[in-house]
Amino acid sequence: MGFNNFCSALAYFLVGLILIAFGTCEGGFTSNYVRRNDLSLDMPLDSDVFRAPPGYNAPQQVHLTQGDHEGRAVIVSWITPDEPGSNAVIYWAANSKLKKSVHGIVLTYKYYNYTSGYIHHCTIKNLEYDTKYYYVVRSGNTKRQFWFTTPSKPNPNTPYTFGLIGDLGQTYDSNRTLTHYEMNPVKGQTLLFVGDLSYADNYPFHDNTRWDTWGRFIERNAGYQPWIWTAGNHELDFVPDIGETKPFKPYTHRFFVPYQASGSTSPLWYSIKRASAYIIVMSSYSAYGKYTPQYKWLISELPKVNRTETPWLIVLMHSPMYSSYVHHFMEGETMRVMYESWFVEYKVDVVFAGHVHAYERSERVSNIAYNIVNGLCSPVKDHSAPVYITIGDGGNQEGLATEMTQPQPSYSAYREASFGHGTFDIKNRTHAYFSWHRNQDGFSVEADSLWFHNRYWKSMEEQSVAVS
Ligand SMILES: *[C@@H]1O[C@H](CO)[C@@H](O)[C@H](O)[C@H]1NC(C)=O
Ligand SMILES: *[C@@H]1O[C@H](CO)[C@@H](O)[C@H](O)[C@H]1NC(C)=O
Ligand SMILES: *[C@@H]1O[C@H](CO)[C@@H](O)[C@H](O)[C@H]1NC(C)=O
Ligand SMILES: *[C@@H]1O[C@H](CO)[C@@H](O)[C@H](O)[C@H]1NC(C)=O
Ligand SMILES: [Fe+2]
Question: Any idea which ligand is nearest the CA of 116?
Answer without folding.
Answer: 1
